[in-house]
Amino acid sequence: xxxxxxxxxxxxxxxxxxxxxxxxxxxxxxxxxxxxxxxxxxxxxxxxxxxxxxxxxxxxxxxxxxxxxxxxxxxxxxxxxxxxxxxxxxxxxxxxxxxxxxxxxxxxxxxxxxxxxxxxxxxxxxxxxxxxxxxxxxxxxxxxxxxxxxxxxxxxxxxxxxxxxxxxxxxxxxxxxxxxxxxxxxxxxxxxxxxxxxxxxxxxxxxxxxxxxxxxxxxxxxxxxxxxxxxxxxxxxxxxxxxxxxxxxxxxxxxxxxxxxxxxxxxxxxxxxxxxxxxxxxxxxxxxxxxxxxxxxxxxxxxxxxxxxxxxxxxxxxxxxxxxxxxxxxxxxxxxxxxx
Length: 340
Known about the structure:
Blueprint (H helix, E strand, L loop, with lengths): L20 E7 L9 E4 L10 H5 L2 E3 L2 E5 L5 E4 L1 H14 L7 H14 L11 E10 L12 E10 L10 E6 L16 H5 L2 H9 L4 E6 L2 E8 L3 E6 L2 E5 L9 H12 L4 E5 L3 H4 L4 E6 L3 E10 L2 E4 L7 H14 L10 E3 L1
Helix pairs in contact: 2-3, 6-8
């Protein structure tokens, strides 16, 4: 394995950090992705009339590579990211990417930038695959050429200062996604829409926004770019995938671990906002945040503390079990680990 870069791993944050190389390939009007390959990390040239710039025809994924306790580099469930990027491409009228093609690109990038993967238990190498409509497009229509690019960045914890329960505000002013829209895919437009709500929330002292469902604001949907869970007694509930919620890889993993290893009664269904206020635990999940507890939720200017405001026992145990699998500290009985 390559000698690690001279980086202050203990103080590594979550942000852009240039690495050695990135993967790039293109797809012209004939619908076939070219062979592709590694290119030096750096700026790219793009037409001002590119479909992604003018009409938002673009999607992305988020993944991590880890230096595990077995002294090797591993990915976590990359086939799920491959499936989701294919779904996202199809929804935005872009050429789909096969699972093997996708994973091969990820492996090449990680191997070439292996020295940027943080040491064991110091963070991960964040992997950002993107697909853009890059041909000049004047008039609302799918582009005639596309670019698939994968770049990486070594990252530490998403939240500095260790895990602390989040302080959320439930918004009635903004919705994350519309029914029958593109909330279920990782379209770039979904995230640009969240910038203003989060900016305002942070100005008011909150960490993130808890979005309510557009068709029924009694129900919760997501926390910014993360899925949400609630535990009451032995029941663990998360909003069902009904077209406006992103099918998170971490979400899927936590559902499995909660049922198999904690014996919780898992439900994917409607999650009432008012039920969160009296929950035993509330937490959110995602590739970046992993599993982070929610301590307070403010709704209509009234703040509700979840239980005692601290990280609950189920969240603590689920996070530990997930991280132990990701870092190969425990046996992976699910086949989730993919060696690089």
